[in-house]
Design the sequence.
């Protein structure tokens, strides 16, 4: 029988590092490894720290979005913001560009109109007032843009 040299007797092997953010039960894991050794607030070294920082920022933004309860008022305000975006009154948050899509704006305004008709008598005074004022303002802005449009094209 041939004897192995000592260097081959104990293989060095490899290490497995679990970098998943969640454990099997769905709970957030505590960071381990080189990134965990950095003091809080101090960046860890290299590209791993940049990626970890981006993941933390994304998770924090998602957490803030989850903290806001969805109410009728926030729903109406979300639809009105979408309509303002399509009217070209506010810039697109993804591109930063002002984009106008009048058919889409009309569609969202019509949705708010249906919501107004179907919820009439079922809302409290503040919710009804918010919906009516948002709907009125958006309709006025839409009509104003449509009236100016032929003059702008000629």
Sequence:
């Amino acid at each position: 029988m041939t004897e192995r040299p000592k260097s081959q007797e104990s293989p060095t092997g490899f290490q497995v590092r679990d970098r998943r953010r969640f454990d099997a039960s769905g709970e957030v894991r505590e960071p381990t490894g080189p990134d965990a050794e950095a003091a809080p607030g101090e960046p860890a070294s290299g590209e791993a720290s940049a990626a970890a920082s981006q993941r933390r920022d994304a998770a924090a933004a998602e957490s803030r979005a989850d903290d806001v309860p969805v109410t009728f008022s926030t729903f109406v305000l979300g639809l009105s913001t979408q309509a303002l975006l399509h009217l070209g009154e506010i810039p697109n948050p993804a591109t930063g560009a002002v984009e106008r899509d009048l058919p889409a704006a009309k569609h969202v305004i019509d949705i708010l109109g249906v919501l107004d008709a179907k919820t009439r008598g079922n809302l409290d005074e503040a919710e009804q007032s918010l919906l009516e004022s948002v709907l009125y303002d958006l309709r006025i802005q839409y009509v104003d843009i449509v009236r100016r449009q032929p003059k702008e094209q000629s």
